[in-house]
From TrEMBL:
GO molecular function annotation: phosphotransferase activity, for other substituted phosphate groups
Name of the protein: Sugar transferase
Record flagged with keyword Protease: no
UniProt keyword terms in alphabetical order: Exopolysaccharide synthesis, Transferase
Top-level taxon of the source organism: Bacteria
Organism: Bradyrhizobium cytisi
Length: 190
């Protein structure tokens, strides 16, 4: 039932909203050089790598590191807005359609985040598809605390239900976890 819901919801959203998504892609290209869609290898179910898609929110050439290790100056002006409201995540709907992700589940991490990958492996989190949103995100927990994140991801798996997933989607749409962006900010940028 989860897969059928994911597929149907994503297909309908993309069918209805494609003009808006095209406008966002054009705005990204007009604001800074580089592709509008950012592709990055992430860790999926079973620890297998997959390519995750997002709207590009950082300048081309930014280091391939977790967000909490990126300097705030790497984020474009439009990118800051897209990140604040999680609009940058929308291209991951294509990852859901292909079966690499689900709407709700643990956020996929980079293969280089060894402590998080190991903690997730130990707690059985890698047994499920990663998600666009999840319990940790609704609670404002990012990847800078691998142990805590893996524990909350494992809690999600233990309690996972269709009704619970709908509540997390609704929570995300209402703004829980929105605006939590842990890029590195220096003293002058606030």
């Amino acid at each position: 039932m989860k897969r059928a819901f994911d597929f149907t919801a994503c297909a309908l959203f993309l069918l209805i909203c494609w003009p808006v998504l095209l406008a966002i892609a054009i705005a990204i290209r007009l604001q800074s050089p580089g592709a509008a869609i950012f592709a990055q290898v992430r860790v999926g179910r079973g620890g297998h790598p997959f390519t995750c898609y997002k709207f590009r929110t950082m300048h081309t050439g930014t280091a391939n590191v977790p967000t909490h290790q990126v300097e705030a100056s790497s984020v474009t002006a439009l990118g800051e807005y897209l990140r604040r409201f999680k609009v940058d995540e929308i291209p991951q709907l294509f990852n859901v359609l292909t079966g690499d992700m689900s709407l709700v589940g643990p956020r996929p991490c980079l293969p280089s985040q060894a402590a998080l990958v190991e903690a997730r492996r130990r707690l059985g989190v890698l047994a499920v598809l990663p998600g666009i949103t999840g319990l940790a995100q609704s609670r404002g927990i990012d990847m800078s605390d691998p142990k805590r994140l893996a524990e909350v991801d494992a809690e999600y798996i233990r309690r996972q239900s269709f009704a619970g997933d709908l509540k997390l989607i609704w929570s995300t749409l209402r703004g829980h976890g929105v605006g939590v962006d842990r890029v590195v900010r220096d003293e002058t940028s606030g």
